[in-house]
Amino acid sequence: MLFKEMNLISPLLKAVEKAGYSAPTPIQKETIPHVLNGRDILGCAQTGTGKTAAFALPILQKLATSGENKNNKHVIRALILTPTRELAMQIYENFVIYGKNLPLRTAVIFGGVSQNPQVKALTTGIDILVATPGRLNDLINQGFVNLSSVETFVLDEADRMLDMGFIRDVKKIVPLLPSDKQMLLFSATMPSEVETLALDLLADPVTVKVTPVSSTVDRTEQSVYFVSKSDKTTLLLDLLNNKGISTALVFTRTKYGADQVSRLIEKNGIKTMAIHGNKSQIARQAALDKFKDGRISVLVATDIAARGIDISGLPYVINYNVPEEAESYVHRIGRTGRAGLDGTAITFCCEEELGNWRSVEKLIGKSVPVQTCEWSLTDIKEVAPPSAPIRYYKMPRKSRNRNSGRGGRNRKYV
Ligand code: AMP
User: Fold this and answer.
1) Per residue in 107-165, pLDDT tens?
2) Can you list the domains of the chain with their CATH numbers?
3) Neighbouring residues of 83: CB distance < 8 A, sequence distance ≥ 6
4) Considering only CA atoms, which residue is closest to atom 15 of ligand 1?
5) How many C-beta atoms surround the C-beta of residue 313 within 10 A?
6) What number does the ligand 1 atom closest to the CA of 22 have?
7) Distance from the alpha carbon of residue 5 to the mean position of ligand 1, in angstroms
8) Whose CA is nearest to atom 1 of ligand 1?
9) Cα 390 from chain centroid?
């Protein structure tokens, strides 16, 4: 099937064609007709499946063709809630790309940056609002947002909203929407809390289900190097300098590790930046933009970038550290091999990480081919991670009394 067989209006078809797509992905094929028909949707799909266009295209079409817009009033008629700033930006950019031939206005609001430009956009009038729940509630409380004209409400990444504790914010927003709105709920997984939420919020929904997490994994060529912790940087530089890997997203376990690896790569003449939770939203977005348009070739990140981020055509993901949670591996490597493209994921595993690596292999249900190099550990054995150093605390003066009865002078206070 092709997009032109999907009853989409020509401004949308032109924009889709300009974006380089001719055939819908499975989630788009299944979702678009139902949304156009006004049905509620319960979508089980992760990012990377083409989910954004699956809701953006029919929403744009409905807003552009239904009567409300005729008198050119810009009131919020579609609301998309998503858990992270990066996802919000991405969804916003998609609406701008697909809607570029339509007289509709989209705005995005999220926390961590000044609210002033966001308030300005809201007060000049918009049709589509993409938002994270916290900032949206803030601006609602300040009287800048009126949701009484919303016709379509999208709750994106519902499972993650729950994980991140945003459901309370979402539940404050829902009663402000008209009761006859159309609602689309998307979630990568369907734990019972999401099912309950769906039952609460959706009216007779159509369920669409595509691409379970594992199929992204299947499309990605994976390998693992067993190396000691101290050889990881040498191996990374060897891959970047000598093995033809010119663009890569590198994941580290800690923020400190991300900075350290990025500094080291930079010292070796490779353009790189680090993103993690200690960087401001502006710095994170700037680094991501530079990576996307090729001004830097390596982006070093903590798991903050593991979910949702869309970097089209990203060829390599390198796990400098094995993630502590096996599921993070799936999300990390899902940054490559997106929308049918091939990708490669390479993992560096040292002895302390072997236990975590076994959990990853168990989750993905296969053993990943082992790559060897001159630094390979030949008989890797699982060792316990180093325990935290024993810390000795000085007792406050008055209790540092030999006769205190708490162990006397030789007691070490751990
Ligand atoms: P999403 O799941 O919305 O994050 O989309 C993942 C990636 O697929 C993005 O880079 C989209 O631009 C791309 N994409 C969306 N629709 C299509 C399509 N029909 N064919 C190929 N790629 C697409």
Assistant:
1) 999 998 999 999 999 999 999 999 999 999 999 999 999 999 999 999 999 988 887 88
2) 3-209 (3.40.50.300), 220-371 (3.40.50.300)
3) 132, 133, 156, 157, 160, 161, 164, 166
4) 50
5) 11
6) 19
7) 18
8) 50
9) 37
